[in-house]
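Risk register update: the risk that structure generation would not scale has been downgraded. Supporting records follow, first protein first.
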Amino acid sequence: MRVIRWMCVVSLVIVAFNVVGETCSPVQQTDPALVEGIRSFLKFPASVSIEIVDAEPVNGSCYERLMVETVEPTRLRDTTVFLSPDRRFLSHDVTDLSAGATDRSSTAAAALANVPSDSPVLGRPDAKITIVEFSDFECPYCRNAAKLIESVVDGDPNIRLVFRHLPLAMHPWALYASRASVCAGGDRFWKLHDFYFENQKLFTPQNVAEKTNELLTLLPGFDPAAFQSCISSVASLDTVRRDVRAAAKLNVAGTPSVFVNGKSVRLGNSADEVRSQIESIVGHSVRVGRDLTFLVLLRGTGSAVTPEAKAEGDKFVEGLRGEGRVSTLGLASSNDDKRSYQIFMLRADDAAAARAIIARHPLVLRKAVSMEVLNWQPEKDARVGQP
């Protein structure tokens, strides 16, 4: 009997070890049986290619969180599923009941502070407040959100906007628009950004490429051959995929999805509501704008301007826009000499600062244009944030 008891004890120890101390079996991301099982679970047709692009344990357990990606000519989709420890069962979600369970969303959101170097950014790089927006150029709600967010970022040195791509599978031309904006790059990204949102209803999957090219050919420094090479390569797709995967890890499924300093926020219906959301997160009031707004007129002096010089001037103004200093741009005609001139609004601390900024304009330095800086309107409700 004593021998039998010892055998029972040993058996219990072995069972306990197998339950508690067992090493998790690795996930074979290319396993055909697992891939086909996921296809059946998610009801994807056989014509759609499926790839498991990421696998990670759930809070130290043997459950695995799998990121599944499908890429079609006009659609890109990342879906999260969970695999059981015995590698037999799939589910859409798991719930951790342990007292030490971590909030994965808040942990992952904090990583948004590390902005990819090639992400489009509007505002000053040293801004204390970072808004990260996951957006879709075909989404009407994103169009409205873009206007609200830019009105808050515009002219405020404390806030910057980081744009990240999330073209939804339901929108047939959104993926092309994202890839095209990646290939346009730099200041041209924001030109396309505004172009897509302002003319959303005019685009179709059949005409989006043509209309995109029509705009880009008007922009200085555009290289059609380089653009076509970029959009035909996997590089532009990989940039979009990076953002879509980041959204999936944050459990972001819809657009627009907005984070302020890593925390998710719901946008309101006005710029004031957006500011209130920001203030509730950062713990202090945010500045509406610089003290003064100036009207700047740049008139031609009659000197010849080469295309390269004009491109330098346009890049300078776009740089000011990126810093949040320029709020509007346009051209006007002079009644006396019928020549057009550039006109825009500039935010600065005072008139001397405004003149000093415009004096650095490449065409002003070349004396190809003359500048006139007029006091427009004081910002009576300017609030300075106290970090």
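Supporting record for the second protein:
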Amino acid sequence: MMPFAHNDFGSDPRIARILDIFAKETETDRALLRPDATLDDLGVASLDLTMAVFEIESVFDIEIPVVAAQPGAEFTTVGALVAHVITVLDGKKLETPSQAGAGATG
């Protein structure tokens, strides 16, 4: 997982977009979304988290795999969710060139 400073997510523009989506879907004040903020402390219901994950998947055209036995359980903090999404995005970026050439035959 990607380490984040206590109150800082860094300058990756994807992170800002993830946080914007999360804030909108969960109706959470964007200013409260710090890496160490727990979903419980923010009062994010599991259904709201699920809807936020679906919207993130839709916007970024990715599938966020479930890490734990209970969907959403792996995301106890905002930082954990963001780190997981960035990992998936980076993995997709690495797979794209090889997949493009995999179907080509001569």
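The mean pLDDT is 83. On this basis the risk owner (M.S.) recommends closing the item.
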